[in-house]
Amino acid sequence: MQSEQNRITELFTIKYPIIQAGMIWHSGWKLASAVSNCGGLGLIGAGSMYPDVLRENIQKCKNATDKPFGVNVPMLYPNLDEIIQIILEEGVKIVFTSAGNPKTYTETLQKEGLKVAHVVSSTKFAIKCEDAGVDAIVAEGFEAGGHNGRDETTTFCLIPNVKKHISKPLIAAGGIALGSQMKAAMILGADGVQIGSRFAATVEASAHDNWKRKITELNEGDTHLTLKELAPVRMVKNKFFNELEEIYNAGRNTDALIESLGRARAKRGMFEGDMEEGELEIGQVSALIDEILPVEEVFSHLLKEFEDTKMPNF
Ligand SMILES: Cc1cc2nc3c(=O)[nH]c(=O)nc-3n(C[C@H](O)[C@H](O)[C@H](O)COP(=O)(O)O)c2cc1C
Questions:
Q1: Whose CA is nearest to atom 18 of ligand 1?
Q2: Which class does domain 7-206+289-308 fall in?
């Protein structure tokens, strides 16, 4: 891949328009700094970090790379104001907000000189992002791992539609693990890509080895988007998933579901390695991930595949 500049590389002053998604229990300073050192944009995932843990991760990331990196702030977790305060105090330059209203923090952060991107799963919300004045929009399709939209719009359908309605730089997410998929997303109109699942199965990700190995064994159909009316999330169909579905189908007892979910189940699965009782978030693209690789290798594969992918004659 040629490292010519485009709107995303210019916005974040990076070499390649490849963003490593913020991911609870995966994206600490090791993963984020490794990605930034390869020329992409690494994001520390604040969603699974207490404020003091986030501060420590930011400080370690600053020591591990002199390249730009950012913090992902999912707005469904507590301590949000404290998290934002730490980001400002530590001099972070880029924030990706998600799972909330793009208006909440965009102006505050931009006034302090930060660049702000917001993650959405529909064109309607992408337009809201543009109205809120964000610097870039991440449009995430139904294939993606983790929390997701209710509308089941795939990346292939979402990107051209968002592109039609917004003028801000656009980042495609969901179902991208290969350079060919990256190129396809950019042909559809994206200026860059946000990649989650592929970076979850890397040496530098902070997740448990049981989980990383499990990712490499997953096949098509092994993940499912559940809890659509509550907090839609794509996860592996394991014992925990079956229990959740039972409660959900038995009458949508919201309290029981929230109790069953909590943050603890995600930690138990992805961070502590309990493959049956834990919540295991991953995208459909896991079916294409066969190896746990160092970030550097993921990058060299992505760039080579991107370069090698040519338009077929017809
Ligand atoms: C394990 C896991 C955890 C995630 N956690 C977060 C999160 O904390 N914040 C967020 O905005 N998105 C989160 N996501 C979604 C990713 O940021 C990203 O948009 C998505 O993974 C892209 O799709 P892909 O998995 O097909 O690459 C998570 C995804 C995964 C797989």
A1: 196
A2: alpha beta
